[in-house]
């Protein structure tokens, strides 16, 4: 199994507008750092993602900063809904143009088979008020296929090399496969050949440990054209714990590439939170023991992995000072663009420091089948039983006998509700 970490929402990292602090030295540092990430472990690469709808202004710098990395462009369909906009042909076409011009990979506009059963804000996709409705699969998969065909037509018209992922949704093994069958029946073969692979959505199944395992197992046994099974993308699976779960079933994927996007480490820069081993450490302006633990490990990282190093004071101020304090000490960016460059370098380096620690954690899990981080020790025995799971029958047996001991946060289905009501009456 090969992996690709996709850093999402780099707007958390780079102060805006980024153009005001760019020069050749600055760009060289970003290029070198992102390229070095591809050499940390031969099976684990680094890429980036931005939102084609609400981050189009970030598209240019993504292409400048990461010319040799994968650049995924999200459709922004969820963001449209949360902002009170209804995705229509005009909005979708604008996103397709951004994807075609700047991306190597693109997410499609997928229609999610969730039904609102009560009052719920649109932003809460996995709210208890939203239930999976299997009866919606046929129509949702068909509409998603129509969106993909239009997306590919525009990519072809613009002579773009960008390839879209086909997103699949489901609440379990059977419904994921049903969605896959329905959507492929509506996408002609010549369009299927232009897809990057399959992206697995999690909104309809949930985000518990048991649900993650079922999602991974489903992908490994999905019935679809072989070329689509060479690259899977996991939507919304980027935390250290959830990736550890994936590594415990890597034997199911052989030579498959699995990419996964995360805001955990980009967002950590603005929250002053950094990954150390399997833990997330938060630091503040007070130089306490936790602060020195994080800085000392960052210092070791920068001396071994970066083309440029930074002082402790620069690290402290760039990550922990408010903009007002920075302006007061160093001058405003238009007056002192050099510190603006330095600040962005440090913020990016700090983000990559967390990514580096995640890569190391994953390698520990990969290289030692008995290794589990402290947060996973209680389930160590259960993980070892997964080595015997080879097919659907094995998984059903495993889920029935062992799955009940794992954390579960499954999205409720309309069928579950109807069955409960029938039993009640």
Task: Assign a percent range to the helix content.
Answer: 40-55%
The rough form would be described as: globular
How many helix segments?
17
Oligomer: single chain
Main sheet? 8 strands, parallel, barrel
Structural class: alpha/beta
Strand content: 5-15%
User: Secondary-structure element sequence?
Assistant: EHEHEHHEEEHEHHEHEHEHEEHHHHHHH
Global mean pLDDT: 88
Report the strand count. 12
The neighbouring-strand order within the major sheet is: 1-2-3-4-7-8-9-10
Unreliable residue runs: 419-425
Distance between the termini: 50 Å
Taking all Cα atoms into account, the compactness measure Rg is 22 Å
Overview of this protein structure:
The structure is a single chain. With about 425 residues, the protein is α/β, with parallel strands linked by helices. It is built from 17 helices and 12 strands. The strands form 3 sheets. Strands 1-2-3-4-7-8-9-10 form an 8-stranded parallel β-barrel, surrounded by 6 helices. Strands 5-6 form a two-stranded antiparallel sheet. A two-stranded antiparallel ribbon has the order 11-12. The chain is globular and about 60 Å long. Mean pLDDT is about 90; it is low at about 420-425.
Give a short summary of the structure.
47% of the residues lie in helices and 13% in strands. The protein has helices at 24-37, 59-65, 77-82, 89-102, 137-157, 173-185, 189-192, 209-220, 240-247, 264-271, 289-305, 312-320, 323-330, 337-367, 380-385, 392-401, 414-424, and strands at residues 2-8, 44-51, 71-74, 105-107, 114-116, 130-132, 163-168, 197-200, 231-234, 257-262, 273-276, 279-282. It is globular.
């Amino acid at each position: 199994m090969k992996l690709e970490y996709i850093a999402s929402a780099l707007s958390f990292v780079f102060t805006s507008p980024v153009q005001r602090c760019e020069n050749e030295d600055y760009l060289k540092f970003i290029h070198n750092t992102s390229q070095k990430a591809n050499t940390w472990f031969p099976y684990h690469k680094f890429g980036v993602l931005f939102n084609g709808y609400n981050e189009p202004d970030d598209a240019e710098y993504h292409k400048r900063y990461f010319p040799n990395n994968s650049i995924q462009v999200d459709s922004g369909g969820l963001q449209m809904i949360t902002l009170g906009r209804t995705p229509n042909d005009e909005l979708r076409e604008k996103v397709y143009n951004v994807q075609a011009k700047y991306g190597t990979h693109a997410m499609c506009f997928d229609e999610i088979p969730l039904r609102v059963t009560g009052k719920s804000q649109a932003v809460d996709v996995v709210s208890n008020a939203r239930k999976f409705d299997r009866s919606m699969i046929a129509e949702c998969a068909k509409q998603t296929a129509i969106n993909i065909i239009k997306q590919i037509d525009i990519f072809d018209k613009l002579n773009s090399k960008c390839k879209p992922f086909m997103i699949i949704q489901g609440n379990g093994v059977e419904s994921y496969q049903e969605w896959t069958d329905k959507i492929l029946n509506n996408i002609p073969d010549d369009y299927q050949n232009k897809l990057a692979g399959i992206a697995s959505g999690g909104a309809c199944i949930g985000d518990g440990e048991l649900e993650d395992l079922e999602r991974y197992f489903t992908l490994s046994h999905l019935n679809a054209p072989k070329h689509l099974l060479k690259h899977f993308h996991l939507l919304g699976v980027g935390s250290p714990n959830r990736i550890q779960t994936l590594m415990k079933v890597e034997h199911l994927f052989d030579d498959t590439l699995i990419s996964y996007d995360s805001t955990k480490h980009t967002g950590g820069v603005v929250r002053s939170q950094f990954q150390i081993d399997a833990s997330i450490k938060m630091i503040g302006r007070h130089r306490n023991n936790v602060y020195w633990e994080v800085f000392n490990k960052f210092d070791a990282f920068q001396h071994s992995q970066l083309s440029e190093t930074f002082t402790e004071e620069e690290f402290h101020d760039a990550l922990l000072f408010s903009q007002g304090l920075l302006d007061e000490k160093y001058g405003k960016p238009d007056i002192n663009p050099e510190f603006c460059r330095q600040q962005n370098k440090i913020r990016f380096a700090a983000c990559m420091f967390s990514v580096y620690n995640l890569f190391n954690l994953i390698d520990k899990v990969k290289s030692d089948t008995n290794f589990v981080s402290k947060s996973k020790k209680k389930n160590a025995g259960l993980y070892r039983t997964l080595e015997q799971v080879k097919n659907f029958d094995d998984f059903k047996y495993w889920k029935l006998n062992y799955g009940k001991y794992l954390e579960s946060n499954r999205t409720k289905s309309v069928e579950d509700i109807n069955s409960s009501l029938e039993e009640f009456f």
